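Lab meeting, item 3. Inverse folding demo.
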């Protein structure tokens, strides 16, 4: 298709999709692991900003519409997408609590380490609400917008010509699940790295299913905004559970 990319040599094919997965996936994986080790998450936000900018740098308006950056007439499904994200996050939270309680094998418990910069004695009353609102706002914007534009947008569309929409979703969901092993699965605890095999496989499976949910919301709304809102709802609920049940 012509006039999709700003650069003539680029095109949507599986090679381009694989290149995006490797470029962004490896970079992000290493940045998140380092952040988990040092407790400094400042640099991880950079990769999400680049994810947001990439479609606008590479694609024409026609190309951006092709990956779903367009309005939707199905406004009810935009709201439903957000609610579905919250519901999915709630299931994953209680599953982690049931299986692993407050141990490091609980995915949300380990992810809560990224909030360690907040003094525990400040997590009371209005202060707690302030920090929750701040971190929820960040969690509902940076990663949902960046990841959905990349995985449900650019990467997904790269696989569509060869594999079709459903198989393309399986591939982008698998890539999404693998990169989230950096957030949980490969963990840094007590001064050393560990791979929590069973919890990690379960977490990766959950991330794969969540990714498929985001694609479903994109399909129902016929817009990338459905996926973004579902992802945003997921992160909102995750942040709520971390602040009010774990920290």
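The presenter then showed the designed sequence:
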């Amino acid at each position: 298709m012509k006039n999709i990319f700003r650069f003539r040599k680029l095109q949507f094919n599986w090679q381009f999709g694989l290149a995006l997965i490797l470029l962004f996936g490896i970079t992000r994986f290493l940045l998140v692991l380092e952040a988990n080790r040092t407790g400094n998450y400042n640099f991880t936000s950079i990769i999400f900003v680049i994810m947001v900018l990439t479609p606008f740098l590479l694609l024409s308006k026609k190309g951006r519409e092709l990956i779903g950056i367009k309005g939707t007439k199905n406004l009810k499904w935009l709201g439903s997408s957000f609610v579905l994200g919250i519901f999915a996050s709630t299931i994953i939270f209680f599953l982690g609590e049931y299986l692993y309680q407050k141990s490091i094998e609980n995915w949300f418990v380990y992810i809560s380490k990224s909030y360690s910069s907040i003094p525990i004695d400040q997590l009371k009353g209005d202060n707690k609400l302030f920090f929750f609102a701040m971190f929820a706002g960040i969690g509902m914007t940076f990663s949902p917008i960046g990841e959905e534009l990349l995985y449900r947008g650019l990467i997904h569309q790269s696989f569509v010509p060869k594999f079709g929409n459903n198989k393309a979703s399986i591939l982008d969901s698998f890539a999404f699940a693998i990169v989230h092993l950096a957030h949980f699965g490969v963990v840094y605890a007590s001064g050393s790295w560990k791979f929590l095999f069973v919890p990690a496989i379960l977490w990766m499976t959950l991330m794969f299913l969540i990714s498929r949910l985001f694609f479903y919301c994109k399909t129902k709304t016929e817009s990338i905004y459905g996926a973004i809102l579902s992802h945003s709802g997921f992160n909102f609920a995750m942040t709520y559970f971390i602040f009010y049940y774990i920290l």
